[in-house]
Amino acid sequence: MKVAVITISDRASRGEYEDLSGPEIEKGILALYPFAAIARSVVPDDPVAILSALESSDGVDFVLTTGGTGLSPRDVTPEVTKRFCDREIPGIAEALRSRSLAETPAAMLSRGFAGMKGSTVVVNFPGSPKAVRLCVMVLGPVMEHALRMIRGEGH
Q: What is the pTM of this model?
């Protein structure tokens, strides 16, 4: 399994803030899939930078982003991801929000998106370490099944 983890944060991209969520996603994925190949990157909350990072992830099975899913003017990750993807997978975003909502009412403000670009699944996670731990717990168990479906191996 090949996974790209993209942290989207102005402050982290400038080195003003340590990226905690990207490493947390990597840790969670490796706990479930020890042989997964994971590449991490950090980009600012800028549509061009986000799109470039998504395009650079060609050939991976999953792109998991963290950050930029809130309500601030610079939170544009879902919009860029929607434009990038060919197909939507609404059940993933719904499940992530539902599970997160059980932890905090603020989860209803998350605008994360999930979709596909070719055979790559792209999922927006919120930006906090706690939120990404929950999201990995929700998405992780179905990742292998998703890959089998994408490859035409069925259920």
A: 0.97
- Per DSSP, the three-state class of 43 is strand
Query: Rounded to an integer, what distance in angstroms lies between the CA atom of residue 142 and that of residue 144?
Result: 6
Specify whether the CB–CB gap between 99 and 134 falls below 8 A. Answer: yes
Q: What residues contact 140, with CB distance under 8 A and at least 6 apart?
A: 28, 29, 32, 33
Please give the structure tokens belonging to residue 58.
């060609």
CATH no., domain 2-150:
3.40.980.10
Q: Which tens digit of pLDDT belongs to each residue from 100-142?
A: 999 999 999 999 999 999 999 999 999 999 999 999 999 999 9
Q: What is the pLDDT of residues 28-78, one digit of tens each?
A: 999 999 999 999 999 999 999 999 999 999 899 999 999 999 999 999 999
Q: Cα 117 vs. chain centroid, distance in angstroms? A: 13
Q: Which of 5, 125, 4 is nearest to 61 (CA)?
A: 4
Show me where the domains of the chain are located. Answer: 2-150
Task: Return the H-helix or E-strand segment holding 38.
Answer: strand 37-43
Which amino acid belongs to residue 39? A
Query: From CA 111, how far away is CA 155, in angstroms rounded?
Result: 29
- Separation of alpha carbons 61 and 133, rounded Å: 20
